[in-house]
Each structure stands twice: as structure tokens, then as C-alpha cells.
Specification:
Blueprint (H helix, E strand, L loop, with lengths): L9 E9 L2 E9 L3 E10 L2 E11 L3 E3 L11 E8 L2 E8 L11 E3 H9 L2 E10 L2 E7 L5 E8 L4 E4 L1
Antiparallel strand pairs: 1-2, 2-3, 3-4, 5-6, 6-7, 7-8, 9-10, 10-11, 11-12
């Protein structure tokens, strides 16, 4: 289940994602846009894992079922007017891509296939994230599995 949030100034939302771990989402209104910061809170401390200025029609959604089957990863959804873009994170806050703490699954998927993520996002194994795709003319495409470790896509 996804929650829609409406705010007038600033908002902080925390969600437990696993025993002892939470994601804190801070939203700061900046007029024409808002700054969204995600902080991973663990038993050993806290770490900012995402911070971006987004347009008013964009946001971060934290689904209820966002934790991988083995507890190694979680995802959030960058949501815009015409897209949903899963961002995958390591549960310990370790970097997954160069200087970023996350993998932008939607961007990688588009760059490699020319398709976009359609929805029905769920973990099917420890590092395997499954989702539907959308092709040209907004037609439903095949199901894909993203392998976080290898940063590759498998068509089902």
C-alpha cells in the first residue's frame, strides 16, 4: 500500500522497514519544488542515503513490501506524473553505484532496453527485483527481473 502525502511546509515521515531499521523521509517545501531527504536509521546510527530537489508533482513513495527476501536490500519509488522509478538500496547503507548509495533501476532499465518500469514491483529473491514493463504507445510489456548484484535485467 502506498501513502499519498500532502504538506504545507515541512514534513518528516518514518517507516520501519526491518527489525531495528527505519527510513526517515524529510520533505522541505522550497516554493516551486521540494527537497526530499531519505535517512537510513539503524541500531548503529543514521546515514543520509538520498537527497534531491524534486518538482511539486514528484515524490518518493515507500511501499509496505519494499524489503528483499533476505533482508539485504530495499527499494523506494521515485514517482512523477508519467513514471515510476524504483531506487534500490543496500540495507546497511553501503554504496551500490559509484558515488551513490542507490541504483536507479528505472534509468538503468530504460538505458538498456528502451522500456520503462510499469509497476507490480516486488522482490522475488535476495537480490532480484521483479516488475512489469511498458513499451511504445504505453503498451504492456514483458515482466523483467533486475539482478542488483550484476546490475542486469532478465526478461521473463
Amino acid at each position: 500500500m502506498l501513502a499519498t502525502l500532502t504538506f504545507t511546509n515541512n514534513l518528516t515521515v518514518s517507516k520501519t522497514i526491518s527489525s531495528g531499521q527505519k527510513i526517515s523521509q524529510d520533505i522541505i517545501d522550497k516554493g516551486n519544488n521540494h527537497l526530499i531527504t531519505l535517512t537510513l536509521l539503524t541500531d548503529t546510527g543514521k546515514k543520509v542515503i538520498y537527497s534531491e530537489s524534486l518538482g511539486k508533482s514528484e515524490g518518493i513513495l515507500i511501499p509496505d513490501d519494499n524489503w528483499s527476501t533476505d533482508g539485504s536490500y530495499f527499494y523506494v519509488i521515485l514517482s512523477g506524473p508519467d513514471e515510476i522509478d524504483p531506487l534500490a538500496f543496500n540495507s546497511e547503507g553501503q554504496r551500490l553505484s559509484g558515488n551513490k548509495d542507490y541504483l536507479d533501476v528505472g534509468k538503468l532499465f530504460y538505458d538498456q532496453t528502451g522500456l520503462v518500469v510499469g509497476g507490480n514491483i516486488k522482490w522475488v529473491a535476495g537480490d532480484k527485483l521483479q516488475f512489469s514493463s511498458i513499451g511504445g504507445n504505453f503498451q504492456s510489456g514483458p515482466i523483467y527481473i533486475f539482478d542488483v548484484t550484476n546490475k542486469s535485467f532478465i526478461k521473463q
